[in-house]
Design a protein that fits this description.
Length: about 110
Amino acid sequence: MALTRDFKTTIGARVERDPAFTKAMLDEAVTLFLNGEPDTARLILRDLVNATLGFEALAKETGKPSKSLHRMLSPSGNPGMDNLSAIIGALRKTLSINLKVQTVSVA
């Protein structure tokens, strides 16, 4: 039988040792939201929160209850724009990441 690692453990370890990976996860989540794929974006944000600041610290940072944040970033969640902005802002602050939006023409 093959040895396997827990997905959360794997993501957490990679986030700890690879700042570029962490930035890419946040960038991908934002890009997915902007391109109309909120379901996948929420899951990436949830994994990133779990691997970095955690939901309790996110609750303190955003002023939202942690249970509400868990629901917002669940597969069936539906965070409003204000909440989404607060979540992304808290992650950016914690990770010291700046995002830059660029438009790309699709031919």
